[in-house]
Amino acid sequence: MLATLVDHPVDTPGWLYEVKWDGYRAIALLNKGGIQLISRNNKSFDEKFYPVFHALEAWKINAILDGEIVVLTPDGISRFADLQNWRSEADGELIYYVFDLLWLNGYDLTQLPLIQRRELLESLFPAPDIIRLSTAFRDTSSAEFLSAAKSLGLEGIIAKKEDSIYHTGLRSRDWLKIKINKRHEVVIGGYTRNENSSKPFSSLLVGVFEKGKFQYTGKIGTGFTSAQQKEMLQAFKPLIRKTSPFSTVPDINKPSRFRPNPPKATAVWLSPQLVCEVSYAEITADGVMRHPSFEGMRIDKTAKEVGKEEAMPVAKVVKEAAGAISQQMLTPVVGGDRKTLLNPSEATQVRKVSKHELKFSNLNKVFWPEEKYTKRDMLNYYYQVAPYILPYLKDRPQSLNRFPNGIKGKSFYQKDVTGKAPDWIKTFPYHTNDGEDKNFMVPTDEASLLYMANLGAIEMNPWNSKISKPDYPDWCIIDLDPTEKNTFEQVIRTAQVTKEILDSIKVPGYCKTSGSTGIHIYIPLNAKYTYEDCQLFGKWIASQVHQQLPSFTSIERMTQNRKGKIYVDYLQNRPKATLAAPYSLRPKPGATVSMPLHWDEVKKGLKMKDFNITNAIARISEMGDIFKPVLGKGIDMKKILRSIRP
Description:
This protein is of the alpha+beta class. Helix content is 20%, strand content 27%. It is elongated, with a radius of gyration of 32 Å.
C-alpha cells in the first residue's frame, strides 16, 4: 500500500501519524521458520540486509509484516545515503521499522481497520533488537507532529486513517505523506562529460515517465563521490545507447544566468532503467529541478514506477472527515559491541579503515578446515577486537606469521616489509648479519592491524618494547611451555605456584592462555628497566617455581635437557623476541584465542578451546580489558630485589 503526497498535514480527527522513514520499503514473510525479505519490486533483500534477515529468523512468529529498512545516525535519524552505501554492519546501525501487520497465523488481516492491525502488531513485540515497532501517534495534531519532525531534521511524516484497510499495491488517499525536504525518485537517461575534466562523469541526465513518455527533469552534478561514480559507470555500461531516450533531447550545453559560459559537455545516452533519488530546491515552470543533488541509487524501484509526483492540496484529499513529541519520535542508537566489517557474501570487498582504503580478498577461503571458519571470519574478529588488542600492538615491531592458505597450508615468517607495504604503514629499521638494511612492520591503528590479517597473519606477534624505547620492555614474561608428556593440569598448577611466588614478594602478575598449549604470565615494568634487568628478574622467578615443582618443570634452555618437563621460560625477555599478543587468534584447531584470565579461572577444568573466535568477543565485551594493568605503572624492581635478598 502506497501513500499519496500532499502539501500540508490533515487537520481532521481519526488520523494517526508516523515518522516517514528514509530507507527501503520491505515486506517480511515469516512462516514456520521460512523467511523472505522482499522489496517493493519483488527483489530479495535476504542477503543484502543479512542482519535483518537473521533477526527475523530468530523471531519465532508466523506473520507478514510491512516496514522500512533504514540505517540510523546515532541520534536515531534515518539517512537514505547511508543505507545506499551500506555493505556490512560496520557501515552503520541497520534497523527494520515495522508499521503494519498483513497476515498472522493463517489469517488475512488486510481487511481489518488499521487501528486493529496495529494492536495485533504491538502484541507481537518485543522482537530482536534490529526489529523495531514504528511508533504511531494519536494524541497530537498534525501541525504539532510536522513541527516536531522539522525540528529533528526528518524527511517527512506519514498520516494514516485509523479505520483504513490495507489496499495492496495501490496508492491510497487513506495514507498521506508530507515531505519536509523536497525529494524525488528519478530515472537516469544519460550522463555528461565536461571538456578537460578528470571526473568519471560530470553530471547525470535524469527524467520521469509521464503518460508513456520519458520527460527530462534536470542535470545532477553534485552529491556523489568519485568511488560512487566509478561504481555507477560499471552499471551504466550495458545500458549505453546511441540515441537520447528523452521525449525531447535536452540541451546539455545551455548557458544559465550564473554560468553564461559553461564548459563544453558531451552526452552518453542510457536506456532508462536505473533509478536514483535526488533532493532539490524547487521545480521550475518547465518541469526542471533547481539545485538538484544526488542522494543515492534506488534498487527497490523499477524505472516505470517513477512518474511525476506533485503534492496535492490536502483539502482535496481529505474532504470529510513539539518537544514532548520529538522525544518519542526517535530512538537513539545505543552504542555497543562492534559489528562485523565484512558482509557474508562478496569474496572481495573494499573498506575504508582509519582513512585508508583496504582491499580484502579471498574472503571465502577456509582457514580452519575442521570448523569451516574462513578468512572473512578472521578479519571480522580482528575488526571487532581491535580496540582491545591494539594497545598491545601499537608502536611495537611485528614478526608476521603468515598462513595464506589457512592453518593446514604452508606458512612462513616475514620480518622484512621493505618495499612491500603501503607508504602509510609505519616501519622500524634493522640490520642483518649479512649487512643488509631491512624494516619491521609497526602497527599503529586498525588499518595496519587489518592489513596484517589480510596477508594471512592469523596471529599477532609484537615485541615486548616499543620503538620509542626499544631496549626497555613494557613487561616481564614467564612463559609456561609444556611438552606432549605434560598434562594441562600440570600447566595450571605451575601457573598457580608462579602466582604464589609473585604474591609472596608483592608483585602483580597477569595471566592469559597462550591459545596453544601453555599459559603466559606478565609482570608490568612500564619500560623502566633494560632487557638484561628484566631477564635476570624473570630467571629468579622461574628458579623459584622450579624449586617448588622439580618433578615436572625445568628451566633448561636446551630441549633435550628438559626431559619432557614444562619449560618455565624466562628467556622470552630479550630484544626482538615475540609472543602472541593478548586477544590474538592462534593458528590452531578450534581457532583459539590467547585470552586474559582472572586468577580464579586458573584451576582444574580450564581448557584452551574455552576461548575461541566464536565466543571471545562476547567475553571481552562483558569483562572489558582485564589485562590492562600490564600497561600500567610498573613494579619497583630494585625495591623488590632488596626485599628478597638473604
